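Researcher: Please translate sequence to structure tokens.
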Amino acid sequence: MKKHPNKFKVGLIQIALSKNPDANLRKAINWIEKAANKGANVICLPELFRTQYFCQSENIDYYNLAETIPGPTTAAILKTAKKLKVVVIVPLFERRSAGLYHNSLVVINSTGKIIGTYRKMHIPDDPSYFEKFYFTPGDLGFKSFNTEFGKLGTLICWDQWFPEGARLTAMQGANILFYPTAIGWHPHEKKQHGKPQFESWQTIQRSHAIANGVYVAAVNRVGLEKETKDSAGIEFWGRSFICDPQGIIIAEASHSKEEIVIAEVDLGRIEYIRRNWPFLRDRRIDAYSDITKRFLL
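Model: Translation complete:
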């Protein structure tokens, strides 16, 4: 592989999704083309973009939405990646085998090849986020993928709350951490809790950028999705963003609009920040063995 460029552009696709998987795939490809036309070299789609967020309930029929890797989604997008000469991060509901499913993503390079898979490591189980019913925790570990534009770290949604995942991914040389996401408000909670919930989400990810001296990119969906017409649903809050190694937000979307977020990753910026904030140098790796325990009391 050729030497990485010192700079490359990232594009995040913030869109609303329908209940039609084929329509969502066509829409995603259209938006990938738009992002490439805006100069993006590495493009990331939201978590589980082929469908609306079906984990609002526990329904065995939704297993039918899963697909293999490689499969129809990767087949379509790899053609687009090759045509546009871009890298695409593609989240999927993976069917690994009968009765064994993962919340996954693949990285497709600019020659149209799948260069790796990441399976979501942390699986939530909260009201309207019943992911433990559907997904087996990832068993591939934390990943950094070496692409023609740079080393990309990939995690998924609930992973974004855990500093251990960000650290282990950054330690593999990732220049940027991607977090494809499906997160929003319960409508009845938004007035009271909406602002601190959103700010906590953004703050924890900015802290990963600061602690590890890397860029962070979080891409969310938008829109109100209801399981049934009588359910409250989830109002996805959008606000996809990219921050630099100092945690400074350099590009950000709105709460409700379909948008492409574009920003530049500058490897020189990573070098500069890490020289001045040498957290990796000063880590006490001799003192952290207890981190593998659940709790110390």
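Researcher: Any highlights?
Model: The helical segments are 21-37, 72-84, 163-170, 187-212, 267-276, 279-282.
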